[in-house]
Amino acid sequence: MEGRAGVSHSKICLAAGFSYGGEDSPPGPTEQLQRGTLCRGWHHASRLGAWYHRSHQARCTWCAKALDQSLSVKGLTLFEGRDGGDMVQRWRGLPTQPWHPWVTTTISEREEAKNYALEALQTKNAIFTDGSVVKDVKTGAALVVYREGVEVYSNFWKLSPYATITDCELLGVLEAVRWIVSTAGDEAWEIFTDSQAVLKILSSRSSTARWDKARQIYLSLSEIPGRVSLRWVPGHSSISANERADELAAKGASMREVSAETEISVRTLRRYQGEAGRLSLRKWWSDKRASLGTSVNDFFYCASHARLWIRGEVTAASSAVVFGRAPTPAHLYRCGVVNSPECDCGAPVGNTRHYLLSCPLLEQARNRVKGGVPYHLYKLIVDLKRRKSFNQLCSALMQYLDARRGLL
């Protein structure tokens, strides 16, 4: 992974609240991470690289800062390097060892899986787990334990806001395994999850090595080999136990305090890096547009993406609208050509936003835009699915304005 230009696909931990003497003295694998770190339970972890290569360091520090600004993650700190710059530490769990037994996973056809789950619920020891993600910020996980159809235990957790649905589902399975090991490890158990992705991760040693929770599941199950099997159950299929787990997971997501933090994947860091970049661009455009000497409309700040024009994907009519050359009544009034900025429909200000969003004279043209005209009009440019409709809408607007001026 040294020398690559991009961020690796491994899990990384932006650890907070701990430090050590120098770059050449890493902490031991049994050393506890202090409270407030973004990863927990990495007691068997091994440090695979001391520090990122410079290119890695710059990219990962960027991600960390973007994540901290957009999420205000509790306890997130960046280490200061010898040259005074910020540095980010990378951690990864050891791969599962060859002598560890395989995890038994089963994914059956939908009806077969449903019938088996209903039968196991009434006749066996069964645990149903589930995860929940609401609006990409509220995340939770839950488990419900049954003995021959009788609920004997349940619990739920709230995860960090950057957790993915796979993180939530894995936590539910991990907590189920922990409960079995600590409470009923001498019995046979079936764990049911409606996430096929989790079962596919656990069925592959290479995939398990990339997910810390999956590796912890492996290590925990190695203490009670052959006593636990994992099965897929179809979600939202009127199985009361699965619906109960889903309800508790949603309840966990609605909690105020995080009770089970998770590691951050590179994909998540990239997503928040992109979001932070877009927010920074929008703020920069809002602050600096007046000093740039340009007439580009505020809501089309992303028109700086010149490649769209270079490829010819934005027509001349669209360019006229974006760069403020559309002869709207408001524009002509500012130029002293007409005496009033009023639109022909009676609106007091006939500007570009009025025509594109609400003017009844262009209602038919707006109705042809796939998915409707978004309130934030810059999306008409960056959304590939709407670009053709955007060009047609701008063409209709320019034709109307030209006809209004008597040019057609």
From TrEMBL:
Its EC number is 3.1.26.4. Residues 121-254 form the RNase H type-1 domain. GO terms for biological process: DNA replication, removal of RNA primer. Gene3D superfamilies: Ribonuclease H-like superfamily/Ribonuclease H. It holds the Pfam family RNase_H. PANTHER family: RIBONUCLEASE H1 (PTHR10642:SF26). This is ribonuclease H.
